[in-house]
Amino acid sequence: YMMLALGMGSYRSALFHLITHAYSKALLFLGSGSVIHSMETVVGYSPAKSQNMGLMGGLRKHIPITKITFLLGTLSLCGIPPLACFWSKDEILNDSWLYSPVFAIIAWSTAGLTAFYMFRIYLLTFEGHLNVHFQNYGGGGKQQNPFYSISLWGKKGIKENSCLLTNESTYFFSKTKYPIDENGRKMTRPFITIAHFEHKAIYSYPYESDNTMLFPIFVLGLFTLFVGSLGIPFNQEGDILSKWLAPSRNILHQKSNNSMDWNEFLKDAVLSVSIAYFGIFIASFLYKPIYSSLKNFELINSFVKKGPKRVLWDKILNGIYDWSYNCAYIDVFYTRFFVGGIRGLAEFTHFFDRRVIDG
């Protein structure tokens, strides 16, 4: 959206979206780090597992503060009022109609896609149940136990000391001490000294991050709530951001003499918010907890019978899913035509050099 606004000559909108987008994205990145940190208490240090959304789910019960702030950043990025990105994104969408209907259609379509994939992330991570306890890593046997988990270093096995199996309470710090080497102590100088830092415990469920991680997330959440007010014209003198950027030129708005009033703004905002909610609805229908989705599919199956049209529709949906999963087959195209062509040319050159020139 920022590049689109710059290309249209709407420099103020581009800089405004740079500011609002920065706070929302930073909030989401730090929230993702908090989620990964909480998952590592269950699966250990394993990026392939702690960053796998297929093993997450139901984290809203265990990390509620991270959940609230992550939802805040998600709604902002989707363009839901009155959060930060709504004001800048809506301004760019309206400017796109003034510049070119083609750019406007592309921009509004991507707005719906943004709402779809962002709420897909939120639903798979925070809603439903924690899937790591129901995941089969080994393919049968005892690992079908719902309390199966992963040790600190990713080894397979059932955690016999699970608090769910033994009815014992877990300790925040383990009793086993792992002393740090003296050279390691000299090399690592933490900004904040944390007591018993060397103690490590494996838990059956994730837990909320400490205040060191939650404080910047909370601050970014406040900015996500209120930073959009920089670009809102509360009076006839204009907004704060326009005063800051007064020397800069805005080519697109120089061509349009009429200024948009609040009635026109609300009318345009309804369409952009509706598209965002449509993307959220599709994501909720496809990725909400499985027990709710089964009810929806049962309702659909009661109206749509398994016939030739239904089979054709299923094939179309599967084709769209495969196309999306394989990134529109762009990598396959590059591999076969560009990489394959260059390798074929190299083999031909090698053959020509060895057999023709050298004889």
Quick structural overview:
With about 350 residues, the chain is an all-alpha fold. Helix content is about 60%, strand content about 0%.
Polypeptide structure, described:
The protein is mainly α and 359 residues long. The chain folds into 2 domains: 1-232 and 258-300, no CATH class; 304-357. It is built from 15 helices and 2 strands. The protein has helices at 2-8, 11-43, 47-50, 64-78, 84-99, 101-126, 163-166, 182-187, 211-226, 240-244, 251-255, 262-287, 290-303, 308-325, 330-357; strands at 148-150, 156-158. A two-stranded antiparallel sheet has the order 1-2. The protein is globular.
Specify Rg, calculated over alpha carbons.
Answer: 27 Å
Q: How do the strands line up in the largest sheet? A: 1-2
Tally of structural domains: 2
Main sheet makeup: 2 strands, antiparallel
Distance between the termini: 59 Å
β-strand amount: under 5%
E-strand count: 2
What's the number of helices? 15
Order of helices and strands: HHHHHHEEHHHHHHHHH
Instruction: Detail the poorly predicted runs.
Output: 137-199, 255-259
Structural class computed from helices and strand pairing: mainly alpha
Instruction: Give the overall shape, derived from the CA principal axes.
Output: globular
Average pLDDT confidence is 73
Helix content: 55-70%
